């Protein structure tokens, strides 16, 4: 037995078990955080790709509209 202590052994056992549980949970928490961060990054990438595609389509539609206007002879807004 170690040196006698004024703290009840049940208390020290409970604290030790709590510390072991926290240390045991750490890898699972780290992996959970990694998965969450990865999911967030992938969601942001998908959102950015969708936005870029939408903006490209708007630009293409504007160019097409301008070209058709030039073909049909609309000269009101030539610059």
Walk me through the topology.
Layout: H1 9-71
List keywords for this structure.
mainly alpha; 1 helix; 0% strand
Gross morphology: rod-shaped
Structural class: mainly alpha
Radius of gyration: 33 Å
Query: Largest sheet, if any?
Result: none
End-to-end C-alpha gap? 95 Å
Question: If you average the pLDDT, what whole number results?
Answer: 87
Number of continuous helical runs: 1
The low-confidence parts are: none
Percentage of β-strand residues: under 5%
Residue share in helix: over 70%
Oligomer classification = single chain
SSE order: H
**Number of E-type strands:** 0
Briefly characterize the structure:
This protein has 79 residues and is an all-alpha fold. It has one helix spanning 9-71.
Mind explaining what this structure looks like?
The protein has 79 residues and is mainly alpha-helical. It has one helix and no strands. The mean pLDDT is 87.
